[in-house]
Hints:
Elements: E1 2-3, E2 10-13, E3 28-31, E4 34-37, H1 39-42, E5 45-46, E6 51-53, H2 56-62, H3 74-85, E7 87-89, H4 92-106, H5 122-135, E8 139-140, E9 146-149, H6 155-163, H7 167-179, H8 184-193, E10 200-203, E11 214-217, H9 223-243
Parallel strand pairs: 1-5
Antiparallel strand pairs: 2-4, 3-4, 5-9, 6-7, 8-9, 10-11
Amino acid sequence: MTLSAQLDAFAVELPVAFDPRWNRIPGITVDGATITVDPEKYFFRFENSTWLLCDWNLVASQLLGIEESAETAVEQLALEFVQEHGFSTSDAGRVLATAWEVYSYLFREEHLPTLGLPQITADHLRMLREAATFMALNKVELDGHISNVGPCWFFPAATSVVYELDEEEGGMLDEVYHGTWFNEYRRIESIKAHAALGGRLVHGCQSVPNQSGGACVPYGASMQTFRTELTSFREEWLAKVYACRTAS
C-alpha cells in the first residue's frame, strides 16, 4: 500500500441516495445522498491529491452537441476542449460530483427501449452510475504511472461486493461499462462526456474475465507504462476487494 499524498476525509452531497451497501467497501460511508470517503482507508495507492476536471455545465452546453467532421475527429474535439477549459483541483468531492453528472448522462434510462438489450434494467443503470462515480477518484499520470488506485478500479469485483451480483450478471454489467452500450453512438457520447473528467476512459482488460478495470486517463498517457504497472498490482489488490464480500 502506498499513501504518500495527503487528503483529509471528505464528504459530498449528491442529487440522489446511493445504495447503502457501499458501506461494505472500506473508506466509503454512505448516508442517503451524502457520500464520505476516508482516503487512508479507501485507497490502495494514493500519490496524487489533485485531479483534472472541466466544468460539467460547460461540457454539456459547448461540447456534447458538437459533431466531428472529416477534418476533426471527436477525440480531437475532446482533447482541445480539455486543453482550453481544464483546471486542476484538490477538491475530491467536486470530482465525485462531476463524475456523477458524467455517468448520469451516459447511463440514462432513455436508452433502454431502443437498444435491444432487454437484460439491462434501470436498476443496472443505477449500479453503473454509482460505481463509475467512485472510479473517477482513480488517477493515471501523463507518463502512464498509475498514481491513485481504489477498490473501484476493479469494477466487477467491487460491484459483486456491493450489489451481490453473480459472475454472469457482474460480467454483463462490466461489459456495458466497457462498451458504453456496444455501439459507436454511445462511444462518441462517452468521449465527449469524459472531457469533464479530463481525459478518456481506458481499460486495462480485454474483456470481462480479465478483471483489470481502468480509469479516466489523460490524452497522451503512456499505455505501455500503464499496462506494466497494472500487471504488477492487479492480483494483490483484486483479492483485497473480493475479501470484502464477507463484510456486513
